[in-house]
Amino acid sequence: MEWINNPHTWVNLGLLIFVIFAGPKVWRGLAGFLDQRSMKIKADLDEAQKLRDEAQALLAEYQRKQRDAVKEAEDIVASAKGQAQREITEAAANLVASLSRREAAALEKIAQAEAQAVAEVRREAVDVAAAATSRLIARTLDDAKASALIDQSIAEVNRRLH
Prior knowledge:
Layout: H1 2-5, H2 7-140, H3 143-161
């Protein structure tokens, strides 16, 4: 009976009785704590999964928006190139038309200058011829011939006017 006198036996027996009476309560409390902790971890994992799904959805949306923006930028560039090409073509056509108008105006001015020069030469020729005729007539014409010429000119004017 030595085990009755051994203090370790009483301590072990007391521990056994404590575990038998208090064990289920401690076990329920520990199990409840572990259940709560596992529920919190599951909720955290569910929240993390939800956040991950939202992040993937946002990433997909931003990637789509980026693709749309790139396409829109390419469309804008293509439109700008087309507009620039049309404006270059229009500017070239306007330049050709302007040069044609300027050439026509220059040719017209040249023609007018030629006509003025010809008219001026004719006037000068008439003036020279009139002066020469006047001098010639003054040298060769006497009073009788002058009166006859005047009468003849008056008759010619009357005939042409009536």
